[in-house]
Design goal:
Its EC number is 1.16.1.9. With 692 residues, the protein is of the alpha/beta class. The chain contains 19 helices and 18 strands. It is globular, with a radius of gyration of 28 Å. The structure holds flavin-adenine dinucleotide. Flavin-adenine dinucleotide binds next to α9, β6, β7 and α13.
Length: 692
Amino acid sequence: MSMGSMGVPTLNDFPKLYWAVVGSAIGVATLVNMFNYMLYRQRMSAAGTGHTRPAKPSSPFFIFNASLFAVMREASNFSARIPVKSRLFRLPTVGRTSLIVANVVVIVVLCFYGFDLNDRWKREDIAYRCGVVAMAQFPLIFLLAGKNNIIGYLTGVSHERLNWIHRWCARCLLLTTTIHLGYFFADWAPYNYIGTQLRENTLMWKGVVAWAVLIWIVFSSMTPIRGWCYELFVLQHLVSFSVLIGFTYIHTPAEMHIYIWIPVGLFFFDRVVRGLRVLYANISFFHPKQRSAGQMSGLWACKAEFTPLPHKTTRIVIRNPPISWTPGQHVFLSCHSIVPLQSHPFTIASIPQDGIMEFLVKAETGGTKRFFRHAEKTHGLSVSSDRSCIKTVAIEGPYGCLRPLRQFDSVVFLAGSTGATFTIPLLRDILQGWKEKVNSEQEKSLFRSPKGAVTRHVRFVWVVKSKGQLGWFAEQLSAVCSDFETLREKNRTIKLEVAVYVTCDDSFTEEHKSLLSNITSPNIGFSGEKKPQRGNVEFRSRTPSLDKNDKIDPKEGIEEITSTTEAATCGPNGTCCCRTTVDEANTSDAMAPCCCGANPSPRSLSQLSPSISGPKSLVHPIISVISGRPNPRYIIRTSLEQALGESAVVVCGPQGLVADVKQDVCALSDERAVHKGTGAQGIYLHTESFGY
Ligand SMILES: Cc1cc2nc3c(=O)[nH]c(=O)nc-3n(C[C@H](O)[C@H](O)[C@H](O)COP(=O)(O)OP(=O)(O)OC[C@H]3O[C@@H](n4cnc5c(N)ncnc54)[C@H](O)[C@@H]3O)c2cc1C
């Protein structure tokens, strides 16, 4: 197969050209990742030497980079919204779209470069060219698929965040193979030769089978179909791509087989590394220290306790975990005695210093529902009982990475419902940094994470469906606030604001796993049918912020407003208060009782408990508990206005919340003209929505 003429590379060179482009893109992303890491070390060391604004670029080189990043972030996070009746249809972000369009452009150029498309005698040549360009794409698809992801390690992007590119690359491969097949058919059609080829040319029908399997893979990987029965999807996906690889192998000439062997190698590399990680994390013999300390016995290292929580949520706790992790990471957890042959990703809600690995798992319709049922059935049974709530579990991981948040001047966390499992450990990590700073722990080593924190200001927002959910993290949040108060006595520059919003607006708390998941409700009040409620209780803290000098007695800080009158409406203009966007500037105003039934039981905050009948706990009084949905743009803006350097916005929750925050950050970056001479500093945005 050679075709070089008039400056056109030979056929076998085209895969190399494709990889020259893809490799350059990965190279640039790797350089950006290395630059970010260097910036982190530089900021942390500047903070250690007493620099007052370590997160603010000062030299022309860093100012230029900050401006470049600001423009790129603003453009790449932008996504157009099309109003459809009373709903908004969100298009994918410009960043994602441009990556895929760039891939398609490269593929199309490589497929057709140097050909006269009107020349019917060139159709077969074009078909062959498309075939080799298709082969070049196999390694990329496999590189993007693994959990132990080489591209991920180089670029600092976690496997689950690369998964959508994996799917789109497969669609691009389908496009290329369709053109490949189409040009052969177009070449043979004038002679009625297609049928003969299909009957007699074995190479031909092997290719057609591979193409048909690829169509099936692309179709079955679409979001609603993939989510329908995830375990079945994974199984058939493995079988389908084995068939695809097999038929492609026998369809292609030997010189192209390298593009088959590389993916096969990548697949087994990932599986072997995963296997080794699973063995290390789950076999107790690999952890002799914990065994000799009596923290582990028997073969298996991980035993977990299942506790039912309000809102069909299960708290799963592994004591003395055999592995360490960084806040924000997740593991794949399986418990074969409850849910055989399944493993699900869950974010670790604790930090390593706790000595436990904790997860909060919302019951969906599959394995997570069975976890909850088990927790309900066994709750309160003794450990020695046959149906004990303690079970042997297996973990795989940890996976996931994000830029260390301690390097940012100000950090805004926004979480919806179980999204707090992601943001709370990150909040606690910053607090840990403040503790290290106050205690002047400055261990310097190239290979250790620097101690301390650049961060001065943190705003933590958690949106929940009812006050019952607040109990999930009441203890952790209260402990954070108490620790902060102690730290602030020694370091007056730090500031923490914590607010919990109780809202009945599902787009901020519930994931809608439907075909229309990218349709969101506009940010307006709701005037639907109301269910008047008697005797509701609303709580609010005495002040919305923790930026104060004096301590407050926890019990004094909580006010209870009760009502025994039937409420027809509790928000403005006939809306429900817990669905309307809160007027952030006036959150300390007294709130009316909620009328929609989102907070149905008149509970006192002192009744909020981490488990259904576990120990009772109070939330710290300086945590604002507000009825209504937050106004992310206002919250982020107020944080940015006081920032003395680059800020980070971290959001984790349903698509609705994540999309709103993305749009708000884009708009604020534009409005404030970040790094465009106004003095406004950069905004780093990290989004998580618990899905691939
Ligand atoms: C990185 C990450 C972190 C997560 N952290 C948490 C957390 O801390 N708390 C929490 O409650 N949920 C978390 N989730 C979501 C959680 O993994 C799913 O809700 C859970 O796997 C659903 O299991 P199920 O069998 O009950 O699901 P089903 O009801 O069968 O399906 C519900 C949805 O979950 C998806 N899903 C099912 N199994 C898997 C799987 N093995 N891997 C990926 N997706 C799957 C399906 O595609 C479907 O969209 C996280 C997800 C990811 C990707």
